[in-house]
Amino acid sequence: MLRLFVALALPPEIRSEVAGLAGGIPGAKWVPPDNYHLTLRFIGEIENWRAQEVDDALAMIRGHAFDLSLRGVGTFDKAGRIQSLWVGAERNDTLTHLQGKIETALQRVGLPPERKRFSPHVTLARVDRAPLDKVVAYVQAHNLFRATPVSVQHFTLFSSRLGKEASVYTPEVEYDLAARAAA
Ligand code: 2AM
């Protein structure tokens, strides 16, 4: 069995820009910068033979390169309790389109549809044990964050091993995106 997800890897320069945001909330569990990524589709545990089908389906996708701009911070909650803190991504039709193609390709090979609406983000920290007022103040203070736009030229199938401290993510396959036509 393999635990897989499809994501955009982030180049080191962007990871260090984002890492500059970490800190300042007592009780928060910050994601190690090497683990930063933007998930396009969480797959979860699947059999090896099915992983092969997933790889074949992803390899058929014809997507286009685009610029990704990370900006702003926000939170996700579960049952009224704030769980995670993230950096958002500027709206981008090419990104949305790519995510839609991935979803369609994975459903075609038999994966159940993703029910959650796609909300592009890079998780910064787990904050379920942090005081609410500190998280709220942090979001207000960092809302204007903007990273340097980065050119995305491939997407990646990652495997994930759950670790004690942090999960270990391994890029398994990279799928190229077609270069944009010159303007
Ligand atoms: P998150 O960053 O918002 O937690 C690897 O676990 C990636 O898949 C993470 O980026 C995680 O999103 C995402 N993911 C989406 N649904 C998940 C789930 N049910 N369990 C674990 N990770 C999930």
UniProtKB/TrEMBL annotation:
Keywords: Hydrolase. It is an enzyme of class 3 (hydrolase). It holds the Pfam family LigT_PEase. A motif (HXTX 2) lies at residues 121-124. InterPro entries: Cyclic_Pdiesterase (IPR009097), Phosphoesterase_HXTX (IPR014051), RNA_CPDase (IPR004175). A motif (HXTX 1) lies at residues 37-40. Coiled coil: none annotated. Its EC number is 3.1.4.58. SUPFAM superfamilies: LigT-like. It catalyses: a 3'-end 2',3'-cyclophospho-ribonucleotide-RNA + H2O = a 3'-end 2'-phospho-ribonucleotide-RNA + H(+). It comes from the Bacteria. The active site is at 37 (proton donor), 121 (proton acceptor). Residues 9-84, 92-167 form the Phosphoesterase HXTX domain. Hydrolyzes RNA 2',3'-cyclic phosphodiester to an RNA 2'-phosphomonoester. Belongs to the 2H phosphoesterase superfamily. ThpR family. This is RNA 2',3'-cyclic phosphodiesterase. It comes from Roseomonas fluvialis.
